[in-house]
């Protein structure tokens, strides 16, 4: 009987398991529960276009529409302008005073100057259109094999439940859920009646479309990460959301739409504003001015830093501004997301050095948020990381609403976030900023906060790698170009402040005086921030010194007194500094990188160096050794060279100190004095020169212009990939010239294969020099022969259509019949009479990280071996002979439509004959180091200093919290459990009855043992020793009792 019952039990459990498995595999899951979730990365591309004959006129204050119109009419009437139009803006701001107008007129300089002279007009700027392309792509791991990309499809990853991962529920339990905080979301709108958003305060439409619905899902997802109240919970579920639709369904926006929407946000007194947008154009001055207006009105602005990683120098605006919280992205494993843009900022180039950005990073890969209609989806991108921080800021702000005086302002919240951030190992300052967002630590810091100023970064240590990359890769030494560190000052005391007196340098010991510091800083800290630029040089007495020197920089920040206070607010700051000094390297190992003659976007349209790159036409990465040429820097350092950056004209460096001057892809003109000095340095001071040039052809430049069908305006290049006419002027005294044939193709040099991407060739070279000829395709002729498109007139390298049309209608250069390869000289080597050596190569793409196909760092090292030593590398032992190329050649034609004079530091427009003329040669700035002060006793530092929480010794784990990321790897199984135990499940009732029956069968089978266990628990061992004639249980021995109980404990 027992065996029969056991078999019945086994069959029952087998059937139940089979049925459950069938239900699990065949059940149709709702959209927010999925067993196969793949990561979608948001690829966002931005284009900013100037609208022809349309201008933003900014006023000094906010005036009514009638008053602004009267001011403009008077100016136009005085200048006899009959045709003009003040564009009417049909949005909510038409009922409020405004500080700008959109005016159409022919753009005459005289009229613009007359408008600028009006006492109530602050500035005039061209109106710009902003075009954003959003593409969702599934991320796949890949490896490079043999030059071809082979994709490794990985298993679907888990995704992050962002609120739980940041441990927001711990703050929710304390009563902090974002209540009372108003958050503005500037994006693509939202869907009416979406079940996730019961706390929408207002939805406004600032576009020219009638509907405010989000048909793309980007804006709705962003809003969900911040404040969703169900399913995929947001971080601040009770925050009041203000939805601003500023992009059309075609992803079109205008600067004026943002300006009006920003003004309305100021009127509505929102606390936090999220911008999951951005672009490389940091010279849209009206936009930047309005961002300053926002933060000066205590609106905390959080912005995505961009999805242009892993390249450096790819930060987007406004996330790169000092008063904005710029957010980068990390993965589930706390690694920097590959797509996350990297610093440094490039505003300060060429004379200065960029600031540390992003400010911090947080989860932006595989984040779960609201779907378009209902349910949830998973997305990746810095536009996902930005609302994560926005939600955290809203949650933190709600926890200090009770504070008097109010401490909710851009500087205070930013200070709390940066001071509490957790350092990520193996990532540098331009990848992670201050580190990973730590919500609970930020909460504790903010609730103990005392208004003060702070510094970002909070210390400088050139011996700490990799965090202080690139500073930590190269020690300091005497006679080097000044090393500049750009520190941001955050002022949490008030929107305005100032640096009192001069910063002071306090060496720690006598060796500390070897480090010479000079300072440049903001005269006024507004809004909430400023800069402190520190230039570092080494004293001549340390030319043979080797060791570590350290000390402290001190400065004092003052702000006006609060209304309830009588004293001026004051904050004393201390910046620890630690650097390594080495003896001055030998001359041959010192390389000077020419940064002064590089110009990039956004000043003008400077095309990419590789003409095949149709979807990325702008050269906007600054061409700096720490941005798109960072791999060059690292290869040279690994080879033992020391690289210094020249941000001044050639007249400002001593050639006797350097072995080689390196000129790569110059777009700028050259001063006459520079040309003369460089020739003298090569002939008389044995300075060597290496030039990596690029393409230039007037006909090709005209063909790569593109027509913006939205603004009805042509965009023409200011120069080619490099400014060869200017470069030829520089090389002319050496008897060298480059031509305008655009070449492309692959060739072998020794054991290496090189891809020549849109390069130039040598047309003149000294007779005693040597040249390398290689057969290449005339890419310029191929481009010129391309048929024009009636749909997009002469558009070659930029398509303003949506992603599908862009792929469909692109004209591929490879689809056009190529010309026959021709043998052209592309590399030349020559030794000047004075000992200096010159190497010329016609293409820079192989050392540029942007769109790199095959690198040629080995070629650069071989050229340096040639220029810095008396030997010829083995690579060049079999050179082709010079084929009589020492004859004079005509100068290259210049593009007569070029506006290079508007952006150049060398030339300007002559108003008399409308030609270009040379500007006055800048004076060479010489650093004036401050006098060292007495050593600082650091124990006297105020314990209220907020940045004491962040130092290099701070652990990534907080003792009082669990930092494990909460991922949704169990969500599917938990849903299946809930789905099984419902009356809608047809097998639930039979399974329940069967389970009850199995339970009773089990009781019957095991009744004897169960009875013994119960008796043992109630009466103990003594029960079996009682002499009771009526007992049904037989007494057992103690030994049997022991074995019986021990058997029960076995598994």
Automatic annotation (TrEMBL):
Residues 1-25 form the signal peptide. The active site is at 187 (charge relay system), 218 (charge relay system), 383 (charge relay system). Keywords: Hydrolase, Membrane, Protease, Serine protease, Signal, Transmembrane, Transmembrane helix. GO terms for biological process: proteolysis. Pfam families: MBTP1_N, MBTPS1_3rd, MBTPS1_4th, Peptidase_S8. The keyword Protease applies. Residues 178-435 form the Peptidase S8/S53 domain. One of its GO terms (cellular component) is Golgi apparatus. Residues 51-128 form the Membrane-bound transcription factor site-1 protease-like N-terminal domain. InterPro entries: MBTP1_N, MBTPS1_3rd, MBTPS1_4th, Peptidase_S8/S53_dom, Peptidase_S8/S53_dom_sf, Peptidase_S8_Ser-AS, Peptidase_S8_subtilisin-like, Peptidase_S8_subtilisin-rel. It comes from the Eukaryota. The keyword Protease applies. One of its GO terms (molecular function) is serine-type endopeptidase activity. The chain crosses the membrane at residues 987-1006. Residues 585-871 form the MBTPS1 fourth domain. Residues 456-584 form the MBTPS1 third domain. Belongs to the peptidase S8 family. This is Membrane-bound transcription factor site-1 protease. It comes from Rotaria sordida. The lineage of its organism: Eukaryota, Metazoa, Spiralia, Gnathifera, Rotifera.
